[in-house]
Amino acid sequence: MLTKEKIYEQLETFRFAVGKPVLVHTSLKAVGEIEGGGQTLLDCLVDFFTQNDGIFCVPTHTFSMGSLDMTKNETCIGVLPTLAAADPRGTRTFHPTHSMAAFGKAELVAEFVSGEEKATSPAPPDGCYGKIYKMDGHIMLLGVGHNKNTYLHCVEEMLDVPNRLAQNPCKRTVVDKNGVAHTVYTRGHHAEGIHDVSANYVNYEPAFRYHGCIVDGMIGNAPVQMCSARKMKEVVELCDKRRNGVEILFDRTPLDEKLYK
Q: CA 81 from chain center: how many Å?
């Protein structure tokens, strides 16, 4: 059984990421049995990555629900996100479909999450995902692959990659902590001719590794990739420039090495 002490020991591999924003995508099943369950893992991650004025983030997405109710602490993406949404130490962002819970010093977190209520797309460059890039942060893939790397949607928005967002915005509802409902309009992810473009983000992993974007480690039984937000953006931008308008994420076909070498 994985103990808190062992988690801290394994986290030392990623001390270089402390002091900057870190966002984690997780699979508790991949980690294995933890003494104290998912709450122990969340506590360790928060304690470790909020050192030295760091900000630790957990996605608390509600995209399959179509809206966000801040009074219910619900998510649609797993155990750790649901624990994070309910954790009083965190601040949940006001995004109707792709919210996240941010942990750290109150004044730093307040600045980090500000403006999310103005989001008009799932991962806008001027929102929290974009701030992870601007602040030289990292994406931590804990027991999952790049098909769960929501940040890459933000990168594609930064680069204005075509065929990634719906043409027309949808009406969404956000219920704040006081129970007051707010109407917002956002464009969802949509790629014509591709069932789920994010499933094909795994195509980028060899390119990320070639350019040194990833530091590997373990938490329990789960492999971990700690990924530099800035370096990943540089690699995706390089591939986008070299693809000559050809869709490279149509399916799981590996990227042509000429795109990134």
A: 11
Give the neighbor-by-neighbor strand order of the sheet with 100-103. 91-92, 100-103, 56-59, 22-26, 138-142, 222-228, 214-219
pLDDT, tens only, 8-61: 999 999 999 999 999 999 999 999 999 999 999 999 999 999 999 999 999 999
Q: What is the four-CA torsion angle of 261, 13, 203, 221, rounded to 10 degrees?
A: 150
Residues 147 and 201 sit within 8 Å (Cβ to Cβ): yes
Rounded to an integer, what distance in angstroms lies between the CA atom of residue 75 and that of residue 69? 10
The DSSP annotation for 210-241 comes to: HTT-EEEEEETTEEEEEEEHHHHHHHHHHHHH
CA angle in degrees (0–180, nearest 5) for 189-195-200: 85
- The Cβ of residue 54 has, within 10 Å, a number of other Cβ atoms equal to 20
Q: 60 and 85 in contact (C-beta within 8 Å)?
A: yes
Within a 10 A sphere around the Cβ of 232, how many other Cβ atoms?
24
Strand positions, DSSP E, 96-207: 100-103, 138-142, 170-175, 181-186
DSSP 56: E
Q: How far apart are CA 205 and CA 199, in angstroms?
A: 12
- Residue found by looking up tokens 């473009």 in the block: 197
Q: Are 59 and 76 in contact (CB under 8 A)?
A: no
- Is this prediction's pTM over 0.90? yes
CA distance 65 to 75: 8
